[in-house]
Design brief:
Blueprint: E1 3-7, H1 12-23, E2 27-32, E3 47-51, H2 57-64, E4 69-72, H3 81-99, E5 103-107, E6 114-116, E7 119-120, H4 129-147, E8 153-158, E9 162-164, E10 174-177, E11 185-187, H5 188-200, E12 208-212
Parallel strand pairs: 1-2, 1-4, 2-3, 4-5, 5-8, 8-12, 9-11
Antiparallel strand pairs: 6-7, 10-12
Helix pairs in contact: 1-5, 2-3, 3-4
Length: 213
Amino acid sequence: MSRIVIFGAGGRVGRAAVAEAVRRGHTVTAVVRDPGKYRDLGASEAVTVVRGDATDAGSVATAAAGHDAAVNASVRLDLPAEEYFTATARALVEGLGRAGVGRLLVLGIATTLEVSPGVRVMDDPGFPEEYRVFSRGHVAEFEFLRTAATALDWLMVVPPMDLTAEAEATGHYRDAVGAVVGQGRISHADLAVALLDEIETPRHHGVQWAVSH
């Protein structure tokens, strides 16, 4: 059994990751900005809901102390994407280092994956500029993690474009490193299965790991 800290636990992916971790017998610290809004997250005795800020290294260190692995499923749409995702990457590297947590999984976005060697989804001339701006946030996050002087064992887990609660929960997924894979659709539940698989048995390190049905 592991102790897992999940930042952004109140979102759809965060909730799915909490549920899958509990189903497998792990204990979870669910980090949210306002615990009062997410009291239902603490319905299981295996889950503790706490206030935290993934952009603040001190807050990360406090929430993560005593844990074996961390997941960052947080997002802020009221801040520029590059600013937010770079800030979280920096705070997580520093904060988890202070807390002694060795494994980090962060969520990426499918638009940064390659459709052919050296060509990403977001590089298409017809790709909407507003989505390209958001995608650059994850590119900046990945580059920060890739070049950070840290012993942290990190992985960017990238769901397909169609990430939905309406997709069938199969308990299975297809995967690839750095490239678009599969049908381009996955359920939140199956994305959570992939996250927990990589926590329990780490197989991928320091890459964009794409998962899909």
